């Protein structure tokens, strides 16, 4: 029996299957990826021809440590995307009772269950008495819920006393890292950071785990050599060290999020939620709106078990903004 497919953003094949008459090109607002990517400079051909060196790999991790404010490079593990780390972590621990604060990114629960753990998806932090591992996405995907650093530190302390882990997925924290655990990494915490979302370079497949050394040793062993490609290492370390670009992108995307809110508020039935890179709309007419957008070649993120919600990423060009505005105006 095949596993139930988890819906993800970015599946334009599915968009074309559902809406075969929609105009091209499609506008993909389903992912929460920065629509204005970091301008990768031309890369030497040798990066594609040779294996990346251990020194280059370590330098990528050093760049990430600098960018994220990690305590040391030794705590940072680079991987070919955060999804790989989400899949690996459950295999580094004996079967445990895992609590996942939800609703949230579905791959966390899926990965822990697949590895043989007892998983409970909990709506609040009041039901942690028997858990050995707690997984929190902060800020949360898709609603942007944000737990304070002090609360996370308290949770980490409680789990440390029982030999447990706190896993914090900070995939969307780069533009708003005020509550990040990174500067005060607890000895039993594992922080995940996504590179591709913030820098608009999801195709490079770069992600990072930041954790105490006993855990990073296990992760490096599980990943094996040459975990990240040479071209990805070169582009990634340049981007991570370009602080001016990050600050400018944060300011510009914050303005874009406000602009998107101004469009969506006319069709939303509840206050808009989310992060700088995506906004979450709630409406009993969400299904109708999804179809109206699809008919016009605009793909947004729907949810298998929450049909009243739609998640909107940020448009890229003026033409995309105008197409979205036209559909929303006609719908409202």
Describe this structure in words.
This protein is 38% helix and 15% strand. By secondary structure, the protein is of the alpha/beta class. It has a seven-stranded mixed sheet with strand order 2-8-7-6-5-3-4, with helices on both faces. Helix 4 packs parallel to helix 5 (106-114). The protein starts with 11 loop residues before the first helix and ends with a helix.
Task: Compute the separation of the termini in Å.
Answer: 43 Å
Biggest beta-sheet profile = 7 strands, mixed
Helix content: 25-40%
- Average pLDDT for all residues: 96
Shape: globular
What percentage of amino acids are in beta strands?
15-25%
Low-confidence stretches: none
Q: Summarize the helix and strand pattern as letters.
A: HEHHEHEHEEHEEHEHHHEEHEEH
Please count the helical segments: 12
Rg, Å, rounded: 20 Å
Number of strands: 12
Query: Which strand order does the major sheet show?
Result: 2-8-7-6-5-3-4
Structural classification: alpha/beta
Compose a concise summary of this entry.
This protein is an alpha/beta fold.
Strands, helices and their partners?
Blueprint: H1 12-18, E1 27-28, H2 46-49, H3 54-68, E2 76-79, H4 82-88, E3 97-101, H5 106-114, E4 118-122, E5 133-137, H6 149-161, E6 165-169, E7 189-194, H7 196-199, E8 207-210, H8 213-223, H9 230-240, H10 243-264, E9 273-275, E10 278-282, H11 286-295, E11 298-299, E12 309-313, H12 318-331
Parallel strand pairs: 1-11, 3-4, 3-5, 5-6, 6-7
Antiparallel strand pairs: 2-8, 7-8, 9-10, 10-12
Helix pairs in contact: 3-9, 4-5
């Amino acid at each position: 029996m095949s596993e139930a497919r988890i819906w993800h953003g970015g599946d334009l094949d599915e968009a074309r299957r559902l809406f075969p008459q929609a105009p091209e090109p499609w506008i993909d607002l389903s992912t929460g990826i920065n629509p204005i990517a970091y301008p990768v400079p031309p890369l030497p051909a040798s990066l594609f021809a040779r294996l990346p060196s251990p020194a280059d790999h370590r330098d990528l991790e050093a760049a990430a440590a600098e960018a994220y404010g990690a305590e040391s490079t030794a705590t940072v593990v680079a991987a070919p995307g955060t999804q790989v780390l989400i899949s690996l972590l459950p295999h580094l621990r004996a079967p445990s009772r895992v609590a996942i604060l939800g609703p949230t990114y579905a791959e966390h629960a899926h990965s822990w269950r697949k590895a043989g753990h007892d998983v409970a998806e909990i709506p609040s932090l009041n039901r942690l008495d028997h858990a050995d591992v707690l997984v929190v996405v902060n800020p949360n995907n898709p609603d942007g819920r944000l737990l304070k650093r002090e609360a996370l530190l308290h949770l980490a302390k409680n789990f440390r006393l029982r030999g447990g882990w706190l896993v914090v997925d900070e995939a969307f924290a780069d533009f708003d890292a005020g509550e990040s655990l990174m500067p005060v990494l607890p000895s039993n915490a594992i922080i995940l950071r996504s590179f591709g979302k913030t820098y608009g370079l999801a195709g490079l497949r770069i992600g990072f785990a930041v954790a105490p050394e006993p855990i990073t040793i296990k992760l490096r062993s599980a990943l094996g050599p040459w975990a990240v490609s040479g071209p990805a290492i070169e582009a990634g370390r340049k981007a991570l060290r370009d602080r001016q670009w990050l600050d400018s992108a944060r300011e510009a995307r914050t303005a874009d999020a406000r602009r998107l809110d101004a469009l969506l508020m006319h069709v939303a039935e509840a206050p808009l939620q989310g992060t700088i890179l995506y906004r979450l709309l709630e409406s009993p007419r969400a299904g109708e709106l999804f179809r109206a957008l699809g008919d016009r070649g605009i793909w947004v993120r729907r949810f298998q078990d929450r049909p009243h919600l739609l998640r909107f990423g940020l448009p890229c060009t003026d033409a995309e903004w105008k197409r979205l505005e036209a559909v929303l105006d006609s719908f409202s």
